[in-house]
Design goal:
32% of the residues lie in helices and 25% in strands. By secondary structure, the chain is of the alpha/beta class. It is globular and about 65 Å long.
Length: 391
């Protein structure tokens, strides 16, 4: 394995692989992070995609110095230190393991991969790379929404007492129309799963991250409402789920329910989280990302109620890099915070979170829900052991 330069005299060279939705979101974060936060010097070197003309246009638009079509050649370059993987899930394992073996720091979009086996291989590669100072992280960007980061702080400080119950729901409607065309996200061989991997992965990560706990057992159901969609050659079968439901048991005793859908008409990007404890409760909705609702259950009953916290104060997580209090930020800022944290971990030689091991843990839960659904909702135990390094 190639070791990274410990303190390169030049700025860190960054390459992003993928230029569609996530490629654009990540590019925006790379382009803006240094304007708001103190981070190590870096350069947006190269944007990689399969279509030479389209990726060249995207590179110019998104602030990259150049474009390329062969990610293997880019990984081999001496002027590239960081690989940001925004490609579809079926490519994650191959690209990430190659980049880590080449001594490149790796940020990869969630979910970690399409399968547990691929995720396990990625964890092994990350563990080997970590031993020589190469950092890796999974892009669960909602951890970096200031309101959710504040929620985690409140829970960790004991403001909710003992957490008993969590409700996490992530609803979208971009597939509500049965005539919406076929995409790679609707084919199991490229997407791995549907709403389950795409958006339930976020909800599951939030449940574990907010509580600082681990899911130990699941039961679930998957359903596909539209089984065929128009493709370039006529109707094609949809081989992934449109919606998923799960009940999760956590090691600390809490129970969580998760429901996700990409056909929930009227819901655009509604990640809603409710956490209920013995001393307090929290509510959050991503469609109002600057707001967190908190109920203090220790107050007299006649004045109890959810109060709105506008999470825009300089004392709140990440906000000091932005605008005066009350000047709200948006969805895209979570990616900027993610890049900030990743760069600072590289600079300090510390391991960022969520790690590949944490991503593997989410993948195990997704696989458990799939297995439960195939067995008519039977409860499935989630393995507690992570894969060990394979040198």
């Amino acid at each position: 394995m190639t070791s990274p330069q410990s303190s390169p005299a030049r700025p860190l060279g960054v390459a992003a692989i993928g230029y569609a939705f996530m490629g654009q979101a990540h590019s925006n974060a790379w382009r803006t992070v240094a304007s708001h936060f103190d981070v190590p010097d870096f350069e947006q070197k190269v944007l990689v995609g399969r279509d030479a003309v389209a990726v060249a246009a995207a590179a110019k638009k998104y602030g990259w110095s150049e474009s390329a079509t062969d990610w293997r050649e880019v990984i081999a370059r001496d002027d590239i230190d960081i690989i940001d993987i925004c490609a579809p899930g079926w490519l994650h394992a191959e690209i990430a393991t190659a980049a880590l073996a080449a001594g490149k720091h790796v940020l990869v979009e969630k979910p970690l991969a399409n399968t547990v086996a691929e995720s396990e291989a990625m964890v092994a590669a990350a563990q080997t790379a970590r031993s020589v100072g190469v950092r890796s992280m999974v892009g669960f960007n909602y951890r970096r929404v200031p309101a959710l980061a504040l929620a985690r702080k409140l829970i960790a400080a004991g403001e909710l007492g003992t957490v008993r119950q969590v409700r996490a729901s992530y609803l979208q409607d971009w597939l509500a129309d049965a005539e919406a065309p076929m995409t790679w996200r609707l084919r199991k061989e490229t997407a791995g799963s549907g709403a389950l991997g795409d958006i339930a992965s976020h909800a599951i990560d939030q449940v574990q991250h907010l509580l600082g706990d681990t899911i130990t057992a699941v039961s679930g159901k998957l359903h596909t409402f539209t089984t065929e969609r128009p493709g370039p050659d006529g109707l094609e079968p949809v081989t992934v789920d449109d919606a998923a439901w799960a009940t999760l048991t956590l090691a600390g005793g809490a129970i969580a329910s998760v429901d996700v859908s990409r056909v929930a008409l009227g819901q655009k990007n509604a990640l809603t989280i409710e956490v209920y404890g013995t001393a307090g409760s929290l509510r959050f909705n991503l469609e109002n990302p600057n707001e967190l609702f908190f109920l203090n259950g220790t107050e007299p009953i006649e004045v109890q109620g959810f109060r709105r916290i506008l999470v825009t104060e300089p004392e709140h997580p990440y906000i000091s890099g932005w605008w005066p209090q009350g000047h709200v930020i948006g969805w895209e800022h979570s990616f900027t915070h993610q890049i900030r944290d990743f760069l600072n971990h590289i600079a300090t030689g510390t391991d960022p979170s969520p790690s590949f091991e944490e991503g593997f843990g989410v993948q195990q839960v997704l696989a458990g829900i799939e297995a439960s659904a195939a067995a008519n909702g039977t409860t499935v135990t989630i393995p507690s052991l992570l894969p060990s390094s394979k040198d």
